Amino acid sequence: MTFFLRRLGWSVFVVWGVVSIAFVVSTVLPGDPARMVAGAQARPADVARIRRQLGLGDPAVVQYARFWKRLVHLGPRVVDTEADPAHATCAVVLPLGGSAVHIDFGKSFQKRQPVVDLVATRLPRTLALAAAGMVLQLLLGLGSGVFAATRRGSWLDAFLVGSSLLGISTPTFLTALLLQYVFARGLGWLPIDGFGATLGEHARCLVLPALTLGVYGAAYYTRLVRDEMVVLLQEDWVRTARAKGLSPAQVVLRHGLRNALVPIVTAVGLDFGALMGGAVVTETVFRWPGLGELSVKALLDRDGPVILACVIVTSVMIVGTHVLVDAAYARLDPRVGHSRP
What we know:
Layout: H1 2-28, H2 33-38, H3 44-54, H4 60-71, E1 72-76, E2 90-96, E3 99-104, H5 115-150, H6 155-169, H7 172-186, H8 199-232, H9 236-243, H10 248-257, H11 261-276, H12 280-285, H13 291-301, H14 304-332, H15 334-338
Antiparallel strand pairs: 1-3, 2-3
């Protein structure tokens, strides 16, 4: 519990630091958000009026304090936007008796709607893409890594290792374009991009971006699993397991793969947290309406509230997966848990 509380405290500090850096960067970037909202042909008086409405004329310190004061606060348990306009951009995250903890990212400069609504719409789509991509990465990567390790020195080992090197070296956007050319334009089996309107169309549109993430990640996991398994399968306790009469599958899966899972869990935690923040390149190429695409558009439009919301969600996801990875270590290898203070 002491270790967990210490990790939680550091996690809050990390999120605060990342968001603060993002706030400073979004403030000092060249360009005027008010001008982008008003349009290139707007009069200076209109731009100045919009700047006052958005609160951009205040000093950066005042904007920073206002952002954190608004981000997490107490409010009514049931939000009535008409009776209480002050909470029109809030979302209830934790009920506390008659009141509740609210989170408020503000209102988008460009879309003029609560950022929490934008994030709530995009986050499930990013979660679906991240989960599908991670499943494909693990299925392809673990399977090919185990096959390569158990057939070390064979042509299959050389083929899988060479393919993994090619997969890691290929940029994600190039893999995406190749998949679009083959399966969408050439064979016509899947949509080339978009999100669709029905559940079936959502699933069909998800295949190519998930496969893009799966191919790239599987290449890394193949090499990681193969290198770990090659070392572990030469240990004395593995030879003892073989001498006791265990089947090759039991030796490889129970004694080899399980002991190789600690570094794999670390990589999975890092990758999944990053994917939950939005696979920027993949979402942009396939026009998948997730957090990655939203963050790119917000950055180009200098939409400060949306940029900060995407940074917060991304940092929370990455830090949260790190904490879960630490908890998983003790389950996979009890010696790790006992060695912690």
